[in-house]
């Protein structure tokens, strides 16, 4: 096997050279022959069918003709010239037109030769023409790589300007495979190929670029998707297995006074069945002698905080400390208040550490953490800093996981010699297939039930032209004692435009709802924490009826008396973000409303998003829809996950079945051979090492 063939620099490939190599590297990240061969087409067009010119009408998509050029003519003045070749196949005549590269095309076309012409017919005046068609001399067609389905490759504007279009890449691929076919080392063990009836790697790669027929193309696609997804799952699961072997978890086997007293005297309500079940799952982990890494999924308002509190009390009962990390100061503050409220009767010491904690406070916190006097620490990213050291940290709770990356989780691990148990809570329901990939190393618990007595939120869509009606409705709600959020999109904190929207919005709202009858506060990311807290405070205490805000309130804020969420320019938000925002209301006993304001003209996609939101309150349904609409890379929270979602051929939204299949497959292999030390698994081990090199360094969390 010529293993290093694939590592050969792309500039040495026939037809490339240094200049093209630099372009390919810069634009497509292709620097070796192997990179090129693993650059897959995005579509295929059936080229078995030839049309007759007499059959053509301008509504046809891309078509293929076979015939000869009768004559050519340059038309027009200097800067506006076009070249027209009159092409005939015996059944009729059609115009082939070039606006650019005229000189070159005039030289290269030969009236004696037969050509295959490929392009999209359009009507120009009363004649049908094909502009900038692909031309191929019939005599030059390669027999060995004889294709019937032509593959198309994404390129870039820069590449096209330099004549590296899809066709050119196709040609390079031809050159690459001419030397590489048969020489590429197999990447899956024989027993898997046999069992799954997969194409070997050479045939898979040949047919993905030059499919002999539709069936082989399908097989090639399946083999390559299988491989891509399989190695992701195998990698994730292997790490999990290794970690569980290596890391002994602290054993929390006691349920003591803190849990018992809290449960008996201070718990504010009966736990829901789902909360009970999840707490049981957590307790099982904590007592098992392995380190817990559990993801707790539960829709907004499902009561994850109470689960966190109970889990922390278990840690305390076993003489360990616990901490909770929240993504924003607002949220950390709010958790701090909740914890203080619920736990002060138990005599538990709780402290808050954020970016705005004063130096003197910090010093005290640091000391008390080391002495063990401080039992629960709540905070933001400030918790991760190396200076924050614990006497005996046993549990880390991370709220709203999607804001934190794997790397940050890893830092918390290091805060104790034996890593603490980790409970990650997220309100972003993640479709199963995606969860298997980005949180594949975590065990998952789901709270699939809301506390009793909640009325489903009514979601209504208003076009901007209905604004007066909106204001009328809001006034009525305020009369009834309710409070209202009005949220403006702020995609990037730096965008001036967005702030203008927010400020204009604030002005028009204070005009429609004048002080002193109404009080309106404003909260956004550019405010100093002190000001932010002051504004929030007014709203939380019910002294302001309206809060105008950016999405800083998206996560976790809890004001049960707020029953209306107005989202301005709702078409600019993503589905899961809209759902998160909506979750800020519907927390009390009253009927709540979410009102989506949009411009009068909506794109199809925006219209779909709004429709989905109006029709369902179910976070899981919404996230599935989101995944389908946007693809995995854009789903909230996946960017920082550190997992490779930018896949070469598989698609996490569409290939869910394969993901499940390969995951089960990988689990079976690892249960028989956890170290992958069997002879016939040696390829697996080698590939894992190769593939993991460039990805996130999982080593640091195991
Ligand atoms: P989230 O899962 O979004 O973090 P929270 O933990 O903030 O939800 O809980 C939402 C609201 O529901 C809070 O006001 C909380 O006090 C209340 N809650 C939590 N559990 C229950 C329960 N079992 N019964 C009634 N209300 C509950
Ligand atoms: Mg929460």
What can you see in these coordinates?
Helices cover 39% and strands 17% of the residues. The protein has 702 residues and is of the alpha/beta class. The strands form 4 sheets. A 7-stranded mixed beta sheet has the order 6-7-4-3-2-5-8. The chain has a 7-stranded parallel beta sheet with strand order 12-13-11-14-15-10-16, sandwiched between helices. Helix 10 runs parallel beside helix 11. The two termini are 35 Å apart.
Percent helix among the residues? 25-40%
The strand order across the widest sheet is 6-7-4-3-2-5-8
Main sheet properties? 7 strands, mixed
- What is the number of helices? 23
- The coarse overall form would be globular
Structural class: alpha/beta
Nearest-integer average pLDDT? 87
Radius of gyration (CA) equals 31 Å
Structure summary, number of beta strands: 22
Q: Distance between the terminal alpha carbons, to the nearest Å?
A: 35 Å
Unreliable segments of 5+ consecutive residues? 634-642, 694-702
* Fraction of residues in β-strands: 15-25%
Oligomer: single chain
């Amino acid at each position: 096997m010529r293993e290093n063939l694939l590592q050969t620099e792309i500039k040495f490939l026939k037809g490339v050279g240094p200049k093209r190599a630099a372009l390919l590297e810069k634009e497509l990240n292709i620097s070796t022959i192997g990179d090129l061969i693993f650059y897959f087409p995005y579509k295929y067009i059936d080229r078995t069918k030839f049309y007759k010119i007499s059959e053509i009408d301008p509504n046809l998509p891309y078509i293929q003709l076979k015939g000869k050029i009768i004559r050519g003519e340059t038309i027009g003045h200097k800067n506006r010239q076009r070249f027209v070749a009159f092409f005939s196949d015996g059944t009729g005549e059609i115009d082939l037109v070039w606006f650019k590269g005229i000189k070159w095309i005039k030289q290269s076309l030969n009236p004696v030769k037969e050509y295959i012409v490929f392009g999209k017919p359009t009507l120009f005046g009363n004649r049908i023409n094909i502009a900038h068609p692909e031309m191929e001399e019939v005599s030059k067609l390669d027999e060995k790589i004889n294709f019937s389905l032509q593959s198309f490759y994404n390129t870039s504007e820069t590449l096209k300007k330099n004549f590296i279009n899809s066709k050119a890449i196709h040609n390079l691929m031809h050159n690459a495979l001419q030397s590489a076919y048969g020489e590429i080392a197999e990447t899956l063990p024989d027993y898997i190929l046999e069992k799954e009836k997969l194409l070997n790697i050479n045939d898979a790669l040949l047919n993905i670029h030059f499919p002999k027929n539709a069936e082989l193309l399908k097989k090639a696609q399946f083999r390559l998707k299988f491989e891509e997804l399989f190695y992701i799952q195998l990698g994730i699961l292997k790490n999990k297995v290794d970690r569980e072997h290596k890391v002994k978890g602290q054993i929390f086997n006691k349920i003591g006074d803190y849990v018992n007293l809290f449960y008996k005297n201070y718990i504010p309500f009966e736990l829901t069945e789902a909360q009970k079940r999840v707490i049981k799952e957590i307790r099982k982990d904590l007592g098992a002698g392995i380190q817990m890494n559990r993801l707790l999924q539960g829709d907004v308002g499902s009561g994850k905080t109470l689960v966190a509190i109970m889990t922390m009390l278990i840690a305390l009962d076993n003489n360990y400390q616990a901490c909770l990390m929240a993504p924003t100061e607002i949220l950390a503050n709010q958790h701090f208040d909740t914890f203080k409220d619920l736990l002060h009767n138990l005599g538990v010491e709780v402290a808050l550490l954020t970016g705005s904690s004063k130096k003197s406070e910090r010093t005290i916190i640091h000391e008390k953490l080391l002495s063990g006097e401080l039992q629960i620490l709540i905070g933001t990213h400030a918790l991760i800093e190396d200076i924050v050291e614990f006497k005996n940290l046993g549990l880390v709770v991370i709220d709203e996981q999607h804001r934190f990356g794997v790397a940050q989780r890893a830092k918390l691990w290091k805060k104790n010699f034996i890593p603490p148990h980790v409970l990650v809570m997220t309100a972003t329901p993640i479709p199963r297939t995606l969860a298997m990939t980005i949180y594949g190393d975590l065990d998952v618990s789901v709270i699939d039930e809301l506390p009793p007595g909640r009325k489903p939120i009514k979601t209504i869509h208003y076009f901007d032209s209905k604004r007066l009606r909106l204001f009328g409705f809001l006034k009525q709600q305020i009369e009834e004692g309710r409070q209202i959020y009005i949220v403006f999109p702020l995609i990037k904190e730096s965008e001036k435009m967005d702030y203008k929207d927010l400020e204009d919005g604030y002005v028009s709202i204070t005009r429609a709802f004048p002080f002193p009858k109404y009080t309106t506060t404003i909260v956004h990311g550019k405010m100093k924490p002190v000001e932010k807290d002051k504004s929030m405070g007014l709203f939380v205490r019910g002294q302001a009826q309206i809060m105008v805000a950016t999405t800083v309130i998206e996560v976790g804020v809890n004001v049960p008396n707020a029953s209306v969420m107005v989202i301005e320019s709702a078409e600019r938000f993503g589905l899961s973000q809209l759902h998160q925002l909506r979750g800020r209301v519907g927390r009390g006993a009253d009927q709540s409303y979410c009102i989506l304001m949009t411009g009068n003209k909506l794109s199809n996609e925006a219209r779909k998003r709004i429709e989905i939101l109006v029709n369902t309150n179910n976070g899981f349904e919404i996230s599935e829809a989101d995944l389908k609409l946007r693809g995995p890379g854009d789903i909230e929270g996946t960017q920082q996950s550190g997992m490779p979602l930018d896949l070469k051929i598989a698609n996490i939204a569409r290939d869910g079945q394969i993901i499940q299949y390969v995951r089960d497959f990988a689990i079976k292999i690892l249960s028989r051979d956890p170290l992958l030390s069997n002879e016939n698994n040696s390829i697996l081990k080698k590939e894992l090492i190769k593939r993991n090199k460039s990805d996130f360094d999982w080593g640091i969390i195991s």
